[in-house]
Design brief:
With 150 residues, this protein is α/β, with parallel strands linked by helices. It has a single domain, classed as Rossmann fold (3-Layer(aba) Sandwich). It has 6 helices and 5 strands; from the N terminus they run βαβααβαβααβ. The chain is globular, with a radius of gyration of 16 Å.
Length: 150
């Protein structure tokens, strides 16, 4: 079974389900668990606002980091309560797609499987919103376990 499991979370109920499944996998295999959360850097979108002075991009970035770290802290506590000690990482996109940041971290760690929640969107909603989970599945060179929303 897998000994190095990476789970990507975003604070949603769906990602909480992914974390639950990852904890089950880790407990059953005495595996290492890495929980990641990705923040999409506001600099990628806010250059014009930043130079115009109408948005304090650094304050936004600090707030996103704080919120992301809180999500990770809660997830690590949940994993430990479930009997799965975990490490965590707050990732930033740095101009990449969120899915690429997840896959890059999984490959660099190196994970043997990625666990990620999928909201199950399809049709126009999928086209307009996109899917991090789908993109991870398409680009990862390692197995991906998709956990559907309940």
């Amino acid at each position: 079974m897998y000994k190095r499991i990476l789970v990507a979370i975003d604070g949603s109920k769906t990602s909480a389900g992914a974390l639950e499944e990852a904890c089950k996998l880790a407990r059953g295999a005495d595996a290492r668990l890495r929980i990641v959360h990705v923040i999409d850097s506001p600099y990628a979108y806010a250059d014009a606002w930043y130079t115009a002075g109408s948005v304090d991009v650094e304050a936004v970035e600090r707030a996103w980091r704080r919120a992301g770290q809180e999500i990770l802290d809660r997830a690590v506590a949940q994993a430990r309560e479930a009997g799965s000690p975990a490490e965590s990482a707050l990732l930033e996109t740095d101009g990449r797609r969120v899915s690429r940041a997840i896959v890059d971290d999984a490959e660099g760690w190196p994970a043997e499987v990625i666990v990620i929640g999928s909201h199950g969107r399809h049709g126009m909603e999928q086209l307009l919103i996109g899917s991090v989970a789908e993109s991870v599945t398409r680009t990862a060179r390692l197995p991906v376990l998709l956990v559907r929303a309940r």
